[in-house]
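Memo to structure team: turn this sequence into structure tokens by end of day. - J.P.
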Amino acid sequence: MRFCQTVDPAAAQREAQRILSDGRFHASPAPRPFRGPVQWVGDRVSSLFDWLGRLPIPGFVWIAIALAILAVIIARIITVARRRAVTHAPAGGRVRGPTEDESEDPDLLERAADKAERDGDLARALRLRFRAGLLRLGARGAIDYRPSLTTSEVRRALGSETFNDLARTFENVAYGGGLAASNDVDAARRDWPRVLTESKQL
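Reply from structure team:
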């Protein structure tokens, strides 16, 4: 049983020349910068197909070769994707947890605030201590803590002048672009315990 018909390369070449001699296949004489490289590639491709045409290989073999090449390309893409995923994964395969600034643990926030203060980042120390204070107020039931809670809502809930002073400093630094000073950080460290004590009396 024959799977394909052997093609006479010379006859095929003559037929191709006859078809290509039609004016439709001739470009205008306008200069093109890529004419040379394109023609070089075309000549090489034509030579390749001439050589392949002389091989008595059935059509289904070419299909199998194409499928094999496609499978190799897909496997390569999958391998590269997996390698990138491993490269960008956190060490030990652990998913990155919340940062110190996003933590819900007031003790952790207090320690981070102490470190920020030692490093000279007074604004961050102030923000971390303020968040820790709000979390502690929420844990005691003095306020209904949530990430979207505003200082105005806390002011109304507490009615504490001590908290109001801390909130004014916090808003000036966090939202008003003000600079945190050492006395601001000292006041936060000193006055937050007072706010928590006052909240027990509500």
